[in-house]
C-alpha cells in the first residue's frame, strides 16, 4: 500500500523521497530517519506501486530495493530510465540490495542507478548519499532554468564543496571549454562531442567536469567519491568504475580504446592532457599503451594501460 506524505508538518519545499521496499519494518525506520532530517517521505511496497507513485507524485529521489514483488527493482529502474518524460527519466535512484554481489551492483548501476547501498547499512551513510544525489540534481535544474548559473570554483566541482553548494552569483560566466572534439559548457552543464549532445546525467557531468578541470592529474577512486559523490564511505569503488564506463560509452569514439578519460592502472582515472584545445577533431586512443602517471600527475611510473 502506498503511504501518503507524513502527517508531520514539513516545509512545502522540502525534498520528497520515495522509499521502495517490501520490508515494512525497514521502511518505517527509514521514514522516521528521513523525516527527522527534514525530508517528506512516500513509501511503496512493490515495483508496480513504485512506478505509480513516481508518475503521480514526481519525487525528487527514489530509494529502490532490488528484490521487490510484482515488478523487480531492476525493472523499475529500467522503466524509469527509458520513460519519455525527462523529469521521470532523470530522477535520481539509489539502490538497496541485501546481496553483497558485485554483479547485482554493476547491473543496477549500468541500468542507470546513481548509487547503491548494501544491506545492512548505516542510515547516516544512506542520508549522506541521498543529500549528495539531490545536490547534483539541483545543479542541473538551476542550470536549465538559469543558463548563466555559474559552476563554482572553475570547470569542475571543488573537492571541499563537492556538490557545488556555494553559488557566487557575482562570479563571471564560464566560457565553454573545447578539448579535442569535445565541448564542455559549465554554465549550462552540457557536453557535446563532435557537435552531438552527450546527454550526460548530473553525476556523469560532475565526474567529467572534475577530471577535465585538471588534465593529466590522476584521481584515486576515493578522491572521486569524495569530490563528486560527496561521501567517503568505504566499499563503493565499483560506483566510480561503472560511472566511468557509462561516461565513456557516451563520449568516447571507441569506449574500448578511450581517448578522453584515461586509466592509470592501479591508481585511478585522469583526463587526457594531450588534447588539442583548439578543437581539431577527436583524439586517437592510446592503443592500450602503459602510462606514467602518479597519483597526482607527478610523472612517477605506474604500470598498466589507460583503458
Structure write-up:
The structure is a single chain. The protein has 307 residues and is of the alpha/beta class. 34% of the residues lie in helices and 15% in strands. The protein is built from nine helices and twelve strands. The strands form three sheets. The protein has a five-stranded parallel beta sheet, sandwiched between helices. A four-stranded antiparallel beta sheet has the order 6-7-8-9, with no helix packed on it. The chain has a three-stranded antiparallel beta sheet with strand order 10-12-11. The chain is globular. Mean pLDDT is 78; it is low at 1-10, 146-171 and 294-307.
Short description:
By secondary structure, the chain is of the alpha/beta class. The chain is built from nine helices and twelve strands. Helix 7 (202-212) crosses helix 9.
Q: Strands of the biggest beta sheet: in what spatial order?
A: 2-1-3-4-5
> How many β-strand stretches?
12
Tell me the distance between the termini. 46 Å
Backbone structural class: alpha/beta
Number of helices: 9
Shape: globular
Question: Can you give the mean pLDDT?
Answer: 78
**Helix and strand run:** EHEHEHHEHEHEEEEHEHHEE
Largest sheet composition = 5 strands, parallel
Q: Portion of residues in helices?
A: 25-40%
Relative strand content = 15-25%
Uncertain runs: 1-10, 146-171, 294-307
The radius of gyration over CA amounts to 20 Å
Amino acid at each position: 500500500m502506498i503511504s501518503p506524505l507524513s502527517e508531520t508538518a514539513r516545509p512545502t519545499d522540502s525534498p520528497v523521497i520515495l522509499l521502495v521496499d517490501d520490508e515494512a519494518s525497514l521502511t518505517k525506520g527509514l521514514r522516521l530517519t528521513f523525516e527527522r532530517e527534514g525530508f517528506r517521505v512516500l513509501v511503496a511496497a512493490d515495483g508496480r506501486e513504485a512506478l505509480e507513485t513516481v508518475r503521480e507524485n514526481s519525487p525528487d529521489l527514489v530509494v529502490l530495493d532490488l528484490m521487490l514483488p510484482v515488478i523487480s527493482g531492476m525493472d523499475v529502474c529500467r522503466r524509469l530510465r527509458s520513460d519519455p518524460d525527462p523529469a521521470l527519466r532523470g530522477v535520481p535512484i539509489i539502490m538497496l540490495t541485501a546481496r553483497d554481489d558485485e554483479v547485482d551492483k554493476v547491473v543496477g548501476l549500468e541500468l542507470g542507478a546513481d548509487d547503491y547501498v548494501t544491506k545492512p547499512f548505516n542510515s547516516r551513510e544512506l542520508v549522506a548519499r541521498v543529500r549528495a544525489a539531490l545536490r547534483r540534481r539541483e545543479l542541473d535544474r538551476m542550470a536549465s532554468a538559469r543558463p548563466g548559473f555559474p559552476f563554482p570554483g572553475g570547470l569542475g566541482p571543488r573537492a571541499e564543496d563537492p556538490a557545488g553548494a556555494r553559488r557566487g552569483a557575482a562570479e563571471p560566466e564560464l566560457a565553454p571549454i573545447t578539448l579535442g572534439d569535445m565541448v564542455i559548457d559549465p554554465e549550462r552543464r552540457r557536453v557535446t562531442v563532435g557537435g552531438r549532445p552527450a546527454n550526460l546525467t548530473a553525476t556523469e557531468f560532475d565526474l567529467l567536469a572534475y577530471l577535465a578541470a585538471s588534465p593529466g592529474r590522476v584521481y584515486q577512486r576515493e578522491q572521486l567519491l569524495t569530490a563528486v559523490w560527496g561521501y567517503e564511505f568505504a566499499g563503493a569503488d565499483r560506483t566510480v568504475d561503472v560511472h566511468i564506463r557509462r561516461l565513456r560509452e557516451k563520449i568516447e569514439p571507441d569506449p574500448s580504446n578511450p581517448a578522453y578519460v584515461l586509466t592509470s592502472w592501479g591508481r585511478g582515472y585522469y583526463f587526457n592532457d594531450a588534447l588539442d584545445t583548439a578543437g581539431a577533431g577527436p583524439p586517437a586512443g592510446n592503443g592500450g599503451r602503459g602510462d606514467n602517471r602518479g597519483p597526482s600527475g607527478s610523472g612517477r611510473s605506474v604500470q598498466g594501460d589507460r583503458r
